[in-house]
Amino acid sequence: MTKAELKERYPNTHFIKTKHPVERPTPALLMEAFIPDADTPEFPDWKAPNTRIYPLSITAYPSVLRRMTAMEAGVWAITKCKQQKWDLELDNFQCCLANLEMDF
């Protein structure tokens, strides 16, 4: 899957880079921790219908997020979850990214 395919299939899904882990995302917490990436045009609209914002912390995945943007890491995690026939949810994305972090 590519970023373009992600935007086509899941238009309201956004992976964002954060300064620290955000356990219970709220707009205020996400804005405070948000780190813009090259492919993040602006902070996603929290109130848009069916919006899913997945925060990826640079402290949890430093090597992964040094090598790719949050959206690229999210696309990679979705691809891995689909290959494993796992549900597309944050816990599974984090599992995939933790394994990739260990590989780096």
Describe this protein's structure.
The protein has 5 helices and 3 strands. It is an alpha+beta fold. Strands 2-1-3 form a 3-stranded mixed β-sheet. The mean pLDDT is 89.
Largest sheet: 3 strands, mixed
Large-scale geometry: globular
Return Rg in Å: 13 Å
Mean pLDDT: 89
End-to-end separation: 21 Å
- The percent range for helix content is 40-55%
Q: Would you count the extended β strands for me?
A: 3
Total helical segments = 5
Which ranges are low-confidence, i.e. pLDDT below 50, for 5 or more consecutive residues?
none
Element string (H = helix, E = strand): HEHEEHHH
Strand order of the largest sheet: 2-1-3
Task: Name the beta content range.
Answer: 5-15%
Give the class from helix and strand content and strand pairing: alpha+beta
Secondary structure: elements and pairs:
Elements: H1 3-9, E1 13-18, H2 27-33, E2 34-35, E3 52-57, H3 62-67, H4 70-84, H5 90-103
Parallel strand pairs: 1-3
Antiparallel strand pairs: 1-2
Descriptive terms for the model:
three-stranded mixed β-sheet; alpha+beta; 104 residues; 5 helices
Quick overview of this protein structure:
This protein is α+β, with helices and mostly antiparallel strands. It is built from five helices and three strands; from the N terminus they run αβαββααα.
